[in-house]
Amino acid sequence: MRRAGLGAVLIAVPLALALLGPLFVPEEQTRAAPFVPLGPLGTDFVGRDAWHQVLAGGRTVVLVALLATALTYVVGVPYGVIAATARLRLVDEMLMRPLDVLLAVPSLLVLILVAAITGPGSWVLVGIVALVNFPDVARLSRAAALEIAGRPALEAMRMQGESWWRTSIVYTGRSMRRTLAADLGVRLTGALYLVASASFLGVGVPPDAADWAVMVDRNRSGLFLQPWAVVVPALLIVALSVGVNLVFDRALREVRS
Question: What SS3 string covers 61-79?
Answer without folding.
Answer: HHHHHHHHHHHHHHHHHHH
